[in-house]
Amino acid sequence: MLLWSFLLISVSVSQLTDDTLEVMLAVQQHFHCDCVYVLDDQHDVTDINKNVYVSQKKLILKNCIHAVFPYVGKGPLFTRCIRPLFVLHGNNSEHRINLTSLFSNVSYSEAVWLMFIETHSHLEDFFAFIDIPFDFEFLIACLKDDGVINLTEVYRVSSTLPLQTHPFGNWVPSSGLVGPELGFYQRRNNLQKLALKTTVRQGFFEGEFFVKERGRGYFFSQVWLILSEYINFTPQYEFSSAEGNGIRLQNGSWTGLVGELQSGTAHLTAEGLSMTKARDREVDFIAPIWVERKVPFIKASSLYEYSWSNIFQPFTCQLWIALILTTILLSIGVWLINYVSCQFRPKDEELTSSCTYFNSLFNVFGNILNQGQTTALKSSSSRILSAVTYWTSVVILAGYSASFVSYLTVRHPIIPFSTFHELLEKGTYRLGLLQYSSLMPYFQKAKDPVLKQLYKKVIAPHKESTPSSSLEGLLRVCNDTHYAFMYSIDSIDKYSADVTCQLTAVPNAKIQTMKSMATVKRSPYLGLFRHTTRKLQESGIAKKLLVHSSTKLPKIDVPLVIVAFESVVPTLYVLIIGTIAAITIANVSEVLAASIICKDL
């Protein structure tokens, strides 16, 4: 049974002045309230959806509802409205008692409150023991001598801090309501050094990832420092010794940082939590500002990929086809030029010998390979065409040589699997997850059949022996050649000095998760944190931090790479095959020529 406490006013709707009703209408329209609650101690709970008129002609309020305090029930009146407007007339002691009881039991942060008083002089006394939360819109309407009704916002940053009063606007009979120019969280962007308990893990502001200014930890720590300075609050850090961000246990409680927020031990966490549906039911995420990519890491293989096709990989198939067609067209051009020259100079034996198409083809092919020619070109047309061929070949050979040399010097380890499906089919690898990682329920409740089978066959049988820390999981990879550990590809560098082997990532077996800081459920400061975080994103500050965190890598001394014999085996095979083919063709040509001469004799 929920307690829906509806405040009362000491006069009925029919006794309100026209100006009061006009102000109620203006406030209702300004905040887009879909109903108005007028609570009367002299009437029963009646007149639901009553329309209020001025002079029985002008419709002034729609869905105006009478209610008596206290009203105990399931709240059918309140649940009819998405954003109600509650109206209170007068600041007597009975209203103060009702407000104190109401705000301490029920959250009405979605509602708008409007209270009519005669003077501002006793506001501090009236609200002395009333905690109006930071995210409440509570307006005080006061009539001035000139007929203008002044509207003032009142709230508290915390129950222990003084009452805050800020001008909201004025209602003028001739022009209506003139509201504020700034938005809600532009007017309320100062927490006045409020101390907020912030849970983080040990070493959040220490360690290699912070010193070297890279990685997820550095990014979130910098965002948090900017938020604390801009919003003006004081973080009181509660260092959690629990591993992982948190998973749900069978008794409904949570471990890790989520457990700290669920139990109320802390107000917020500055660390990035993976945004899952299960966690969203226990905490409120501020805003997704980091995309984490987790992939399996395996021990680097001592075997490397060597393929015959790598000889052709420097160029795409289309470029190879274009190169072949260019060679053919250029050879045809050279042949036509030589053929025409032969017609005009038939007695030139050197020119006559080059008039065949095959001679022209080998001439162009030699030019492309930057080889010299035994026969000098005599015509200007042939020389121009030859020069164009040489110039084209210089560019093509430079590109091919650069790519082929990089293939010879950069060795690519053989990866036993490239996707989760191949990992499942292989059946010889174990996939390790962090003990309190959000990936554990992700695989367990996955709708994808491959991930489901992967959890059932590869992860679940070894669930009891899952590593308790990321470093432990990476060290297991070094000790077991058939063990893969899921970890963030953006944060792997912080363990580069601790692991005892070279690791290889499997980039195609990737899981992306959104990371966000979080608050306790229904925190009054959630809206301010979301608003400020969006401002950081819109202004480009978050993006600059993201680039800085992701791209600033440590300087690595790359040793001189020695080309292994296995790398050039395909090239040597091509050389041997080409040499054998050339010798064979030469011998066959000599035999054929000798047989032809014998026949002529």
UniProtKB/TrEMBL annotation:
Membrane topology is: Multi-pass membrane protein
Which GO MF term does the entry hold, naming one? ligand-gated monoatomic ion channel activity
Q: Does the keyword S-adenosyl-L-methionine apply?
A: no
Tell me the first and last residues of the signal peptide.
Answer: 1-16
* Gene Ontology BP, a term: detection of stimulus involved in sensory perception
Q: Has the keyword Lipoprotein been applied to this entry?
A: no
The UniProt keywords, alphabetically, are: Cell membrane, Glycoprotein, Membrane, Receptor, Signal, Transmembrane, Transmembrane helix
| Transmembrane region(s) | 319-337, 388-410
State the InterPro entries in the record.
Insect_Ionotropic_Sensory_Rcpt, Iontro_rcpt_C, IR75A_N
UniProt superkingdom = Eukaryota
Q: Which residue range or ranges hold the Ionotropic receptor 75a N-terminal domain?
A: 110-199
The record's SUPFAM superfamilies line, in alphabetical order, gives: Periplasmic binding protein-like II
Q: Where is it located?
A: Cell membrane
Residues annotated as domain Ionotropic glutamate receptor C-terminal: 317-476
- Tell me, in one coarse class, where this protein mainly resides: membrane
Q: Name one GO cellular component term.
A: plasma membrane
Stated family: Belongs to the glutamate-gated ion channel (TC 1.A.10.1) family.
What is the official name of this protein in its record?
A: Uncharacterized protein
